[in-house]
Design brief:
By secondary structure, the chain is an alpha/beta fold. It has five helices and nine strands, in the order E-H-E-E-H-E-E-E-E-H-H-E-E-H. Helix 3 packs across helix 4. Keywords: Transferase.
Length: about 190
């Protein structure tokens, strides 16, 4: 069985189904990687989360059962990243997987750039990531926030007109939950929305 380890917008069920059919996902942690906000290139118009190899760190995410026929679509969605196979010893499964003999792939960034005024963090993208995390638990969402680096002051509040193309079906309850978590983790104070 093949799985994708998703650690950003792929955590969210509605978002990942824009690319491939994947209702089920299993909470997991990937060891030996760190998650950062990053522009997806020097000329990118927004930032997203990326992972890079880094000792003594881990990131939470989900293991998504995956049909290899969809690799072309997923590679297109994740362009700018490199698809790599990860060792099973690097995974800590937080849910019980239905199979034991698996191959796991993820997408890593060849490098990362600090978010800037012309490549900001989009609130709509963050809302998608946190909505996926909240499906598992509030603690899981808090872990996502605290294990992500490169939080900067370049955020865009695009909730009224989302710029992230897969930001759909939000409600005010989600916004309140996200803002509460940002406040509890002291990240709300670093946010300079424009």
């Amino acid at each position: 069985m093949v799985y994708i380890f998703g650690y950003g917008s792929l955590i969210d069920q509605e978002c990942r189904q824009h690319t491939f059919p994947a209702k089920q996902a299993y909470a997991a942690r990937l060891k030996g990687y760190a998650r950062y906000w990053s522009a997806l290139g020097q000329d990118a118009d927004r930032s997203a989360v990326v992972i890079v190899e880094q000792e003594n760190t881990s990131v939470n995410g989900v293991l998504i059962p995956f049909d290899e026929h969809y690799f072309e679509q997923l590679d297109e969605r994740e362009r700018g990243y490199q698809r790599v196979q990860i060792g099973l010893e690097q995974l800590q499964c937080l849910d019980v997987l239905p199979d034991s003999a698996i191959k796991v792939f993820t997408y890593v960034a060849p490098r990362h750039w600090q978010p800037k005024h012309n490549s900001p963090i989009l609130q709509s993208y963050l809302d998608v990531c946190i909505r996926g995390c909240l499906h598992h638990s509030e603690d899981y969402a808090t872990e996502f926030l605290l294990s992500t680096g490169s939080w900067g002051e370049h955020w865009v509040d695009d909730r009224k007109l989302p710029q992230y193309p897969r930001a759909l079906d939000f409600d005010t309850n989600l916004f309140e939950a996200v803002d509460k978590l940002l406040h509890q983790t002291s990240l709300l104070g670093s946010r300079k929305l424009v």
